[in-house]
Design a protein that fits this description.
Layout: H1 5-29, H2 32-88, H3 93-176, H4 179-192, E1 197-201, E2 204-205, H5 214-222, E3 226-228, E4 235-237
Parallel strand pairs: 1-4
Antiparallel strand pairs: 1-2, 3-4
Helix pairs in contact: 1-3, 2-3
Bound molecules: zinc ion.
Length: about 240
């Protein structure tokens, strides 16, 4: 095939650029940050599920506390009324005794409620501890994702820029070589995917490493400066 030294150099550079572009494209897809972000989100979903359960527990405990407090408030009023009645009973021994009994009952119930209140408060404190821990874990995970995304976007746009620069340089090189040669390279690259051109290394294809024998070698050499490997069909520069 017709080609001058400049064409051959251009083709070899295009080959290098194409391989670099293939690698950069693959790297973009497989950026580790992308995978890590997915993992963080999954884990965060699990933590959020636990947090939802904790919120339910807290609602129940809050409601229980409200019931205890409401009852205690109404008992406190009752106690005060009983005290007023005792004060107003003067020397009426029977009245004093009856209101005192009522007051003793109220006070006993309030003691029970005070114990209950301590119990529910301990439960609420425990719930708050767990909630703080889970909320902290979610915040830390979100911060980690933000920093990963920043790193990811930086790396991703650097790769995109690399691919853009490769494409520009490739177009320039393609335009500089003979159109027929450019077409042949393009077709070969589509068929072989990746490496489309190599060098004939003595009697061996520089890409598939097949030793080329007798007649094939003679006809390959006749195609100099550029021919096609009879085995892998890649272009070979023949020096
Ligand atoms: Zn070959």
């Amino acid at each position: 095939m017709q080609a001058d030294l400049q064409d051959l150099e251009a083709l070899l550079e295009i080959q290098k650029i194409d391989l670099d572009t293939i690698q950069a494209t693959k790297k973009r897809v497989e950026l580790p940050q992308r995978i890590e972000v997915m993992r963080l989100r999954k884990k965060r979903g699990e933590i959020q599920g636990k947090l939802d359960q904790v919120h339910e527990l807290q609602k129940k405990a809050d409601a229980e506390m409200t019931i205890v407090e409401d009852e205690d408030r109404s008992l406190a009023e009752k106690q005060e009324r009983a005290q007023q009645l005792i004060d107003a009973s003067g020397s009426d021994y029977r009245k004093v005794e009856s209101h005192s009994r009522e007051m003793a009952g109220v006070m006993k119930r309030r003691e029970t409620l005070a114990e209950k209140r301590v119990e529910v408060q301990a439960q609420l404190d425990k719930i708050k501890g767990v909630r703080d821990q889970l909320e902290g874990a979610i915040a830390a995970s979100e911060a980690k994702e933000a920093s990963l995304r920043a790193a990811f976007e930086g790396e991703d746009s650097a790769l995109a820029e690399q691919i853009r620069a490769n494409t520009a340089r490739r177009d320039e090189l393609m335009a500089s070589i003979a159109p027929e040669l450019a077409r042949t390279y393009k077709k070969t690259a589509e068929k072989t995917g990746g490496v489309a051109i190599g060098k004939l290394d003595g009697e061996t294809c520089g890409v598939c490493r097949t030793h080329i024998e007798g007649g094939h070698l003679i006809s390959l050499r006749a195609q100099a400066p550029i021919g096609t490997c009879p085995v892998c069909k890649r272009l070979l520069v023949i020096e």
